[in-house]
Amino acid sequence: MASTSASRSDGVSSRIRRAASTVNSDNQLLVSDIRKAMNLMKDIAVDLERDNQSDMVKQLENAVAELVEAHENCLHYSSAIHSVAEAYRPGPELTYFKKLLDTEFEKVKAGSSSHPQNHPLMHQFQQAVWNVHHAGQPMPGEEQEDIIMTSTESSIKNLKCPLTGKHITELTEPVRSMDCKHIYEKNAILIYIKSHHNNAKCPESACPKMVHAKRVICDPLLLVEIEEQCTLSRQTARTDVVEDFTEMEPHDEDST
What we know:
Elements: H1 2-50, H2 54-87, H3 97-110, H4 120-134, E1 174-177, E2 183-185, H5 186-195, E3 200-201, E4 210-211, E5 216-217, H6 220-240
Helix pairs in contact: 1-2, 1-4, 1-6, 2-3, 2-4
């Protein structure tokens, strides 16, 4: 009887974890859509700033702040769902999952020091607008402002695949570990895992996590974040290019 009860308990726990995984996937799609919306709003704000329509830019900035808060709440809920699913063990009494999730959500949110106005996504929006008329110049107060990137604010943990050495923007099929969140070229990581007889440690230096073929995936948010990285790289390249005309000699109109 004890063995049957334990088996039933394990079965329930497994179903809860699968359900949590499904909910998290749906939540990631929502996060991905929010990020796409913010990128679109950033592009529109840049165009408006070029036309000196500051009032409309400010309205967009306020809307982006609201989206940043929604973005963070989605990530907090994902963390809460994962924690509840991993810790859940069925007992003799009914489980109120909503109460468990709400409690865990508040705990996760309380541990985040992020504020919409100081969030890196907001900073990217403001920087893009600022660069329209002040490219290459620091934004007001930027020297003193300390923008902290937490694990919930950016899911990109490595900019190069540890196996191929390629920048993540150059990967043919980027995938991310569901466990340690490092990014790899799909074919390279699968060959690596197979060569270690499915007992492989993450190839990223100092990462203690194991990698499994079924848990390296292209999650919905990954491609959005890589595209954001491409855009950021292009913007950085443009602001780093400085044309020097000081050595150009004036034409001597009298010379023949």
